């Protein structure tokens, strides 16, 4: 699944570690999500959406 | 609550607890096996009491392992789940093959459960390392 987390993180001037801290996950998890290696759970996707004040669809894009 | 401040600490704490429970279980098993031979020379009462203690410590270790898994975040849990899947599969397939080799006398020695435990440990560890590498 594609996502815009890296861009949004840069817009908010956050490091992976800082974002991980705010989302209560490890930095490795943020890195894996950004690289598309790991799809987050729905609760984590909602946390991301709330943090960046976006909808889930604005952050994630399902690949056909 | 933040992962880095609370969960990470609690995860480290639970890992330490798991290590303590595991060490106690292994030590009680060693005492049970070697003590039976070298210390109390087959006294069944002492052996039975230590077996019960070993069993209870084993339950404690299982609970500590569950709590350790609960303290991990979702990616780390996935890594451990995949490692467990690999480990279980290898243990089942190799365990049956090993046992069959013993039954059909393809090997000259007896198939020991301890060999299977070593295989489970190594394959689980390898599974975690592979997972960490895949999702780095």
C-alpha termini separation of chain B: 24 Å
Helix count, DSSP H or I runs of 4 or more residues of chain B: 4
Determine and state the CATH class of chain A: Mainly Alpha
Outline of chain B, from the CA principal axes?
Answer: flat
Sheet/helix structural class of chain B: mainly alpha
The tally of domains of chain B stands at: 2
Helix content of chain B: over 70%
Can you give the mean pLDDT of chain A? 93
Rg of chain A is 10 Å
The quaternary organization reads as heterodimer
Poorly predicted parts of chain B: 1-6
Order of helices and strands of chain B: HHHH
Separation, N- and C-terminal Cα atoms of chain A:
9 Å
Helix and strand run of chain A: EHHHHHE
Enumerate the strands of the largest sheet of chain A in spatial order, edge to edge or round the barrel. 1-2
Q: What is the C-alpha radius of gyration of chain B, as a whole number of Å?
A: 19 Å
What structural class results from the helix and strand content of chain A? mainly alpha
CATH architecture of chain A: Orthogonal Bundle
The best one-word shape of chain A is globular
Largest interface: A-B, 17 and 16 residues
Task: Write structural notes for this entry.
The complex is a heterodimer of chains A (64) and B (136). Chain A is mainly alpha-helical. Chain A has one domain: lambda repressor-like DNA-binding domains (434 Repressor (Amino-terminal Domain), Orthogonal Bundle), CATH 1.10.260. Chain A has 5 helices and 2 strands, in the order E-H-H-H-H-H-E. In chain A, strands 1-2 form a two-stranded antiparallel sheet. Chain B has helices at residues 3-38, 44-70, 74-103, 113-134. Chain B is flat. The two termini of chain B are 24 Å apart. In chain B, 11% of the residues are buried. In chain B, helix 1 (3-38) packs antiparallel against helix 2 and helix 3 (74-103) packs antiparallel against helix 4 (113-134). Chain B folds into 2 domains: 1-72; 73-136. Chain B is mainly α and 136 residues long. Chain B has 4 helices and no strands. Mean pLDDT of chain B is 91; it is low at 1-6. Chains A and B meet through helix 2 and helix 3 of A and helix 1 and helix 3 of B.
